[in-house]
Amino acid sequence: MTIAIVGAGLGGLALARVLHVHGIDAVVYEREASREARGQGGMLDIHSGQRALREAGLIDGFLAIARGEGQDMRLFEPDGTLLLQEDTPDDAPLDRPEVDRADLRDLLLDSLPDGTVRWGHAFTSADDGVLRFADGGSAPYDLLVGADGARSRVRPMCTDARPAHIGQNVVELGIPDVDRTHPDLAATLGRGNYWVLGDGVSFAAQRNGDGRVRIGISFYRTDEDWFSRSGIPFDDPAAARARLIELLPGWDARFTALIAACDDTVVPRSISTLPAGLTWPSTPGVTLLGDAAHLMPPVGEGANMALLDGAGLGLALAAHPDDFPAAVEEYEREMFERTGAAARMSARVQELLTSPDAARKMLAFFQPD
Q: How far, rounded to the nearest angstrom, does the alpha carbon of residue 191 sit from its chain's CA centroid?
């Protein structure tokens, strides 16, 4: 029987890999033209997702590309007060290491047989066991797995739920090769995560494996149209950086200096989620994983849940190779319980980030009594 996976993200590739380990073929259809078609984003905190990589036989490869120093953390208030500094010893266990998303994706892609991923296949619809693509092509399937992210085209086959804006808008920027271009700022940033939490605004900086610092400035308690009213001229990067600094009155000069040092990559992103604990009646011939199934606030759980989804569905299919409906029901029961708990926890963290005393509340979260 034919297993078709729509989407070559982490979850879809983890599913294909676990199936391959168990001698089951699958085909992954990806709309991008190639693995190099676009950037894959920044670093990921992989913790529970390591279980999935073990099931995939890739844990050693993961540990070889993971950055233990990415577990370091610095937490500040906007006036420059340092609330928390955690520096990871070199021999510390890799409980929550950072890894470049592109490197992790390459690890999964390289573990699959040639031809498993069909690039340039933009899924449009499916019915009667046939997938249809934007170029007019088609392909048969017995089980369709929607691993196609937040804007999933497969999701409507399972549920009417749609992502909703959660009152957060993010501006993404970056400093290239920070150790060479701005060694003074590099020393300030440290090796891992760098957070500044204010009232309704957060600033997060994170080192990438290629030496770039990825920065996200989040504006909370804002609506979907906020960018149009913000006065940020995204078509003029220098002016956009200046406007962002204006939007942070009273912030310590160390933080605004990081914004001033960014290059011309300035990207607005509006944040949406699916309802926490979303479920649906098991549907013959189709299921979902990753953001297609449980889009959460971006607080560090999404990639881990996607990896676990892929491994969990792969193991269920391997246990029931002649009964796809039973395998899907088994997978969905476990997935609903696990990701519902993760989504509720993520929502609690999101609530802390949006609170007036966010820095102190986050400190208490990291260091409970």
A: 20
- φ and ψ at residue 28, rounded to 5 degrees: -110, 125
Beta strand 117-119 with 3-6 is unpaired
**What six digits make up the tokens of 86?**
């955690």
**Residue 217 near residue 164 (C-beta atoms within 8 A):** no
Tell me what percent of the residues of the chain surpass a pLDDT of 90.
80
Specify the range with the lowest mean pLDDT, choosing from 67-71, 227-231, 244-248, 250-254. 67-71
The pLDDT, as a whole number, for residue 39 is 67
- Per-residue pLDDT reduced to its tens digit, 88-117: 887 777 777 889 999 999 999 999 999 999
Please measure the distance between the N-terminal and C-terminal CA atoms of the chain and give it in whole angstroms. 53
Query: Is 282:329 a contact under the CB 8 Å cutoff?
Result: yes
CA 198, 199, 201, 206 dihedral sign is: positive
Report yes or no on whether pTM surpasses 0.90: yes
User: What is the C-alpha separation between 11 and 150, in angstroms, rounded?
Assistant: 13
Tokens of 140: 């048969």
Segment 274-287 mean pLDDT: 95
Q: Token pair for residue 284?
A: 């013959």
178-201: per-residue pLDDT in tens? 999 999 999 888 888 899 999 999
Residue with tokens 């990825």: 214
